[in-house]
Amino acid sequence: MEYLFSDKTISFNQDVLETFRSFRQVGTHQHEAGGILLGRIYQDGKVIVEQISTPGRYDKSGKYFFERNVKYAQQIVNKAWKDSNGEIQYLGEWHTHPEMNPTPSSVDHKLLKGMINDSKLEIDFLFLVIVGIDGFYVASQTKDEELRELHLVR
């Protein structure tokens, strides 16, 4: 799965895709799940999501919401950064929606816009992945633009 983003591409390794699929909200009373995206940015413009966090005991969720614990997520980011000698970094957020083909809510738009504007990241973009029952919604957020859906290239 590879998406076009400006002059870059973003792709997901197989383990990440399998984890996404394992959290799809296929059950009637299944809660939303989510976490953070971690990966590498290469000189040639490739962005590869190599790891994701999964819901932890300090996260909160319901059928129509997921709220990750910021402190726990930061610990995951710090460990990935340290263990990779600064190569693996925070790239954005993911969560599920109980829809066949998901679309972002107003909360999703507000969350990503706030995160990019308030962040001290080394990158000037973030990604959002929403995992639906049948499909994925993948988008980018920059300081200058609204949340923008990315298109699958392969």
Automatic annotation (TrEMBL):
UniProt cross-references to Pfam families, sorted A to Z: Prok-JAB (PF14464)
One molecular function GO term is: metallopeptidase activity
Recorded hits in InterPro entries, A to Z, give:
JAB_dom_prok (IPR028090)
SUPFAM superfamilies tied to this protein: JAB1/MPN domain
List residues of the JAB domain: 28-132
Assigned keywords, A-Z: Hydrolase, Metal-binding, Metalloprotease, Protease, Zinc
UniProt-recorded name of the protein: JAB domain-containing protein
Organism, per UniProt? Paenibacillus odorifer
Phylogenetic classification of the source organism: Bacteria, Bacillati, Bacillota, Bacilli, Bacillales
